[in-house]
Design brief:
Cytochrome Bc1 Complex, Chain A, domain 1; alpha+beta; globular
Length: about 150
């Protein structure tokens, strides 16, 4: 059964309990996608998705990733047109500690200035890799031509 709850702060929780399954997964969709970027700041959402994982709360980047690894968390972060997404899966018994780590990521990211250039270089490298992936390049171009700005970003 799928349940739905909206918290007073606007956060919406949609959950499904699956008896017999030992894992737990979650996705957080933040209204911080490419469509919300200023036209002259393309890539900011992608950079932010990387930046927030470079240390949070009382942990630096390495400590944060090590803590996630110790909990067996498989995770991904990325920016789409409308949302920046954070997704993770782990054993059910590790869900609460994993959510506590992500609470720090969302509420207390370090966002250190010295991380900007390495993240920028990584983002540019990712963009350049589109040249080696014709399928992705075509889909990007189709979206850009079909949808008006900013939805076609």
């Amino acid at each position: 059964m799928i349940s739905h709850h909206q918290f007073p702060n606007g956060l919406v929780l949609i959950a499904e309990v699956m008896p017999g399954v030992q894992s737990a997964a979650f996705s957080l969709l933040l209204p911080a996608g490419a469509a919300y970027e200023p036209a002259d700041r393309g890539g900011a959402a992608t950079m932010l998705a990387e930046w927030i994982m470079r240390g949070a709360g009382g942990r630096d980047s390495r400590e944060l990733l090590t803590a996630l690894d110790h909990l067996g968390v498989s995770h991904s972060e990325g920016a789409q047109v409308l949302h920046t997404s954070i997704s993770a899966a782990t054993l059910g018994r590790n869900l609460i500690p994993a959510l506590e780590l992500y609470a720090d990521v969302l509420r207390r990211p370090h966002l250190e200035d010295e991380e900007v250039e390495p993240i920028r270089a990584l983002t540019l490298q990712s963009l350049q890799s589109l040249e080696d992936d014709p399928g992705s390049k075509v889909m990007y171009e189709l979206r850009r031509r079909h949808f008006p700005d900013p939805w076609g970003r």
